[in-house]
Design a protein that fits this description.
Chain B: This is ABC transporter. The complex is a heterodimer of chains A (about 300) and B (about 250). By secondary structure, chain A is an alpha/beta fold. Chain A contains 14 helices and 13 strands. Classes of the chains: A alpha/beta (about 300), B mainly alpha (about 250).
């Protein structure tokens, strides 16, 4: 659990982060959204003390984050940044092993962990381990960057626009990978982005920041349904709201009894994808199949449209 | 195709020829006597006869090596110091100190150093050391202040201490640029070391000065040619090391 209490950061006369308090539950993803200059990155960097706050306290699992020297604190917290920041003079395996080496793990344990992470990220340890970062594609570099951040099995992972430099297709894949890995390791993730789409997709909770202040901190559905201010509303995008709301739900949860013609849609797909498919193919209903391929029922345009309406 | 192959090989071939000629000349200067003979008058000696060219060449290189190593240690240490948060305020001061070292003519340094440390190698070392500081310091400063921002950020974020960042990330990444400064410094020192012989340092300058005093063009030429050949070869060698290091640091292909 991460407790941020009354955190303020001032540089001379300008207040970059202004009295922010929030609690991030363990094993969840909190996304901090805001425009550039909103203080979201500074807030993130105060958690691992790359920036020291002017006032306020941050507690990690109850302990003040100033109870350890900064560098020791940072070894226990994963940190992944935009443009990955891989060490160009070190191989992929050495890059991933950075924090375990600093912590003095023995060689066998480091190798096992590096191999595990590389395999998890679909990078063959034999083939990619000895390569240098500039020999990899952008998507592969990004994956190595996240693998490096996770190497020492941190409970908390901080990510600063980790997908910012990726093209849309690779970005979707990277987001799915991160969600899967978060489930697997139970890591608490705090992710900074300016992309509301990404925030709605990734976050268990979303924190909206504007001019250094925390404007709203709530579940995605709540942010969409009841934006706290005109700024949040504009960030959400008025015309996008119903679709973003649908993107939060799975098809499985919108299934009605009955059958329909045509290719079935998997129950794990988002309701937004199902509606898009319905509209595009001009059909009133789609069959739904479970993970095992068995039919679950159907989704209908009418049913989805009702779900896209503003929650009461 | 054949022509392209030859073009690619030509520089290496020329260097090889130069190395062979240089070694042959300093070990067996007598072989070249007929070539230099026309440059002398009144049956003056053709080949320098007051010491072996080989030992003078080695002493010359030793002087340059000692001065460069010392200048490298001091310049890089100074550059590291002024790029740490605690040392930033010393940046202007150290810049002007190093600049003074460069603007002071080596001859003047020799003249001032002799009364203090006596004749011989010492004043030469002092002059070369001061003269060699600037290129290394400026390059080290450039290297340490133009590191990719997100790489340094990642090193901090991973929990490296200041010392670990310096040794594991900052110095390796700026190594190619620092090497470039060392290369410039070495080449300047190779030429400048010759004037050390005016205060009795044993360098190849001895040969040139002897030629000037006795109006012997053959002496001047052989001293000058050896220094020039050394400078060209060392410059090339260090450039190659620099390119290799840059590739190892994942910086481009050039």
């Amino acid at each position: 659990m991460i407790e941020i209490e009354g955190i303020t950061k001032r540089y001379d006369a300008t207040t970059v982060v202004d009295d922010v308090s929030m609690v991030i539950e363990p094993r969840t993803i909190a996304v901090i959204v805001g425009t550039s200059g909103s203080g979201k990155t500074t807030l993130l960097r105060m958690i691992n003390r790359l920036v020291e706050p002017t006032a306020g306290v941050i507690k990690l699992d109850g302990a003040d984050n100033r109870s350890l020297p900064g560098y020791e604190l940072r070894r226990s917290i994963g940190y992944a940044i935009q443009g990955h920041g891989l060490f160009p003079h070190r191989t992929v395996a050495q890059n991933i092993a950075t924090v375990p080496v600093l912590l003095g793990w023995d060689k066998a344990r480091i190798k096992a962990r590096v191999d595990e992470l590389m395999t998890l990220y679909q990078l063959d340890p034999q083939a990619f381990g000895p390569r240098y970062p500039h020999e990899l594609s952008g998507g592969q570099q990004q994956r190595v960057g996240v693998a490096r951040a996770l190497a020492a099995e941190p409970n908390v992972l901080l990510m600063d626009e980790p997908f910012g430099a990726l093209d849309p297709i690779i970005r979707n894949k990277a987001q799915e990978d991160l969600l899967a890995i978060q489930k697997r390791f139970g890591t608490t993730i705090i992710l900074v982005t300016h992309d509301m789409e990404e925030a709605v997709h990734m976050g268990d909770k979303i924190a909206v920041m504007d001019a250094g202040k925390l404007v709203q901190y709530a579940k995605p559905a709540e942010i969409l349904a009841r934006p706290a201010s005109a700024f949040v509303e504009s960030l959400v995008g008025a015309s996008e709201k119903p679709f973003r709301l649908l993107s939060l739900g799975r098809v499985r949860d919108a299934v009605e009894k009955g059958g329909a013609e045509g290719e079935a849609i998997p129950g794990d797909a988002s309701q937004r994808d199902a509606l898009a498919e319905l509209l595009w193919s001009g059909r009133p209903a789609l069959p739904v199949k479970g993970a095992d391929g068995k039919p679950l029922g159907r989704v209908t345009v009418d049913g989805l449209v009702k779900r896209a309406a503003r929650p009461a | 195709m054949k022509e392209a192959g030859l073009k690619a090989w030509l520089p290496s071939l020329l260097r090889l020829v130069l190395v062979v000629l240089l070694i042959a000349f300093v070990t067996n200067p007598d072989w070249f006597e007929p070539l230099l003979k026309p440059l002398t008058e009144n049956n003056a000696p053709v080949i320098y006869n007051q010491g072996s060219l080989l030992s003078l060449t080695l002493l010359h290189l030793r002087t340059v090596l000692i001065a460069t190593v010392a200048a490298t240690i001091v310049a890089v240490a100074l550059a590291i110091l002024v790029t740490r948060p605690a040392g930033v305020e010393f940046l202007p001061l150290s810049r002007s100190l190093v600049n003074i070292g460069q603007t002071f003519p080596p001859v003047a340094v020799l003249a001032l150093a002799v009364p203090a440390v006596g004749f011989g190698e010492k004043p030469t070392l002092i002059a070369l050391f001061l003269y060699g500081l600037l290129p290394i310091f400026e390059n080290a400063l450039t290297g340490l202040t133009t590191l990719p921002v997100n790489v340094v950020e990642a090193a901090r974020g991973a929990g490296m201490t200041g010392w670990q960042r310096l040794v594991k990330v900052e110095l390796p990444l700026s190594a190619p640029i620092i090497l470039g400064g060392i290369r410039l410094s070495v080449v300047i020192s190779l030429a400048t070391a010759t004037i050390g012989s005016t205060v009795a340092a044993r360098t190849l300058g001895e040969v040139i000065i002897a030629g000037l005093l006795s109006n012997n063009l053959a002496f001047i030429l052989q001293g000058g040619l050896i220094v020039a050949a050394l400078a060209v070869l060392i410059y090339d060698g260090l450039s190659a090391i620099e390119r290799y290091t840059a590739r190892r640091m994942g910086q481009g292909t050039a």
